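Quick one, probably user error.
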């Protein structure tokens, strides 16, 4: 291809040269999979216009393979959300737990009392890390249960943790429905990441506005109560 362009005195622009490199890479990947009789290749390009997107195997019945950004979202005790990791490549979520806990320590000055996570985060490495720091990690214990009494209390704790962990799933659904996280129309990698970050920021601003509104109503109710009390005292004194 380079010789063909050179012989015909064709000078490509920067965008056309980049597109040509993408097409050549796609051809080479398809040729490798055909000759190797396989359906996977490293850094496989799934979209020519969005070459940074990689297929992510999720194992769901509706869509076993998904395309797009993969992110880890954490929610603290005040309901504020933070993006712990954002990537277009497939990765193991369990490796994000330690950095998320350390980020919490940097923000607050102490480690959390408990961490509510999905079962995929509960591997031996993370369990050991949390136990050494005195953090209770949600989820079932690894290994065989001890006895019926411990099993009942453990089931009750696991149920309560799963109930509280719904807040994270609710935040993701809220970001998709109300803050346009599920309606991304950007093409570039940097603008897509910015759009995702802005959706989370807008959700946090909405959370802060709701907290300030409740504080204002609470303060206003005390002000009205004090005025009524003062009016009653004035009537009695009169």
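Nope, works fine. Designed sequence:
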């Amino acid at each position: 291809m380079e010789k063909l362009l050179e012989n015909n005195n064709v000078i490509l622009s920067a965008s056309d040269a980049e597109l040509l490199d993408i097409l050549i890479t796609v051809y080479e990947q398809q040729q490798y999979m055909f000759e190797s009789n396989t359906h996977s290749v490293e850094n496989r390009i799934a979209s020519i216009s969005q070459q940074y997107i990689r297929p992510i195997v999720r194992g769901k019945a509706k869509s076993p393979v998904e395309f797009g950004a993969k992110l880890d979202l954490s929610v603290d005790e005040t309901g504020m959300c933070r993006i712990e990791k954002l990537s277009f490549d497939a990765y193991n979520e369990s490796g994000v737990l330690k950095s998320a806990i350390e980020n919490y320590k940097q923000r607050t000055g102490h480690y959390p009392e408990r961490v509510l996570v999905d079962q995929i985060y509960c591997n031996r490495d993370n369990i050991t890390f949390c136990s050494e720091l005195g953090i209770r990690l949600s989820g079932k214990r690894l290994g065989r249960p001890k006895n019926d009494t411990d099993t009942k209390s453990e089931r009750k704790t696991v149920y309560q943790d799963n109930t509280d962990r719904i807040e994270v799933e609710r935040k993701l659904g809220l970001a998709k429905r109300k803050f346009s996280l599920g309606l991304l129309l950007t093409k570039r990698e940097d603008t897509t990441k910015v759009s995702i970050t802005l959706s989370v920021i807008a959700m946090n601003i909405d959370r802060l506005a709701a907290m300030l509104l409740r504080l204002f109503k609470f303060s206003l109710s005390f002000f009205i109560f004090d005025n009524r009390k003062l009016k009653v005292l004035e009537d009695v004194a009169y």
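The chain has six helices and six strands.
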